[in-house]
Amino acid sequence: MVALDACHTKNKKYPTLLFLATIVDGNNQILVLAYGIAPDMDTWCWFISNLKHCIHGLANPNVVIVFDRQKGLIDAVAEELPANEHIHCTFHLQMNLRRHFGAQVSKYFQRLIYATTKEKYEEAVTVLEEQYTNGKEVAEYIRAIDVGKYARYALKLSRYGRVTSNAVECMNGAFLKFLVYAARRLIFELWTYMMRCFYERRTEAQGSVELLTTYAKERLDEFEQEYGRYVTCHSDVNTALVQCNGSAEQFLVNRQLRLSCSCFESQEMQWPCIHVLSWCKSKREDYLLYVDRIYLQKSLAACYSHTIPPITEQDLQSVVTCRAPEPAVRRGRARTVRIPNGGGSSRGRTEFQYPVRDEPRLIPSQGPRHASQAEDTAGPSTQSSQGKAKRRCGVCRETCHRRDTCPVRKH
């Protein structure tokens, strides 16, 4: 399953878009298939056509394409990859429902996503119409979306348990620190990141002696520890009924369809669920025969067998032959950092604090108005008990005399 998305770069001088195509390997690790830089969303066709040219087999009908419901992306995928199965990111669908009908509608929509049969899907829609406010309006909005784009029971191919485009969204966050650079530096940083990623994962995969990847082995080990709680009742050679002790829920296992189960996990994840594993144990068959090859350690090593050669930023200078675009000019006066005044704060700005002085600042006076004030205005000022400013001696800082009569100065 290939996830597609784009994000805006943070370079203010040359704003562009970073296009990404990602998959998830058998060890539940995100792998970037390709990335591209373009000025706007209108270049989705350019990116997908180049991706199809570089990744052989991308146009295979067995490849699932997942993306959010961007108008330009929907049209580009339909034009460039018409034979593939297209599904929508359920997270973005939920966000649209929350925006129109409130946050509580999400739990009802989750039941629709993971419904394993059409009967359970219709039952979940009925519950939505009866229990939720404006339920009929919500159900009408959901029915306008193709059920084959998001519901588990209606999907023709396996999604390996992934119903969103979170894989590509996570890489947008991982590349966030690189998005401030211009195009050439951004390409260099992404290239270096992928080179290091391939080396580390290739070394780990080639050094492992296990048959399965760590992700698949841990999950199947959990099933093997819990399968003893299940009882298997065989109907014939190919079908059986599996029930958990102390529970009324029952699951139908059928070997004719590569050991499918009514819980739908075997078909979704392409490994034996706990009910299929219980069936295999009762028949004394090796359940590893029903594990998809994507979870094999040798498949993981082959995925990262390609070596990405190192490059320098100077090497990219000879590759780029086009002229740099004119930087975007923002209309209006240039923005500056403004210091708020001391009168108060505005829009979350902190109030400006003036420096604190040890002594009051001397303010020149116009001379004494009365003869009785002549003594007080002779030197630097201080604060008296009555609240009036008094003068200090400029030499010894006392208030009982002036500078010209200071005894310290005479000595």
From TrEMBL:
<dbReference type="GO" id="GO:0008270">
    <property type="term" value="F:zinc ion binding"/>
</dbReference>
<keyword id="KW-0863">Zinc-finger</keyword>
<protein>
    <recommendedName>
        <fullName>SWIM-type domain-containing protein</fullName>
    </recommendedName>
</protein>
<dbReference type="InterPro" id="IPR018289">
    <property type="entry name" value="MULE_transposase_dom"/>
</dbReference>
<dbReference type="InterPro" id="IPR007527">
    <property type="entry name" value="Znf_SWIM"/>
</dbReference>
<feature type="region of interest" description="Disordered">
    <location>
        <begin position="331"/>
        <end position="390"/>
    </location>
</feature>
<keyword id="KW-0479">Metal-binding</keyword>
<dbReference type="Pfam" id="PF04434">
    <property type="entry name" value="SWIM"/>
</dbReference>
<feature type="domain" description="SWIM-type">
    <location>
        <begin position="251"/>
        <end position="284"/>
    </location>
</feature>
<keyword id="KW-0862">Zinc</keyword>
<dbReference type="Pfam" id="PF10551">
    <property type="entry name" value="MULE"/>
</dbReference>
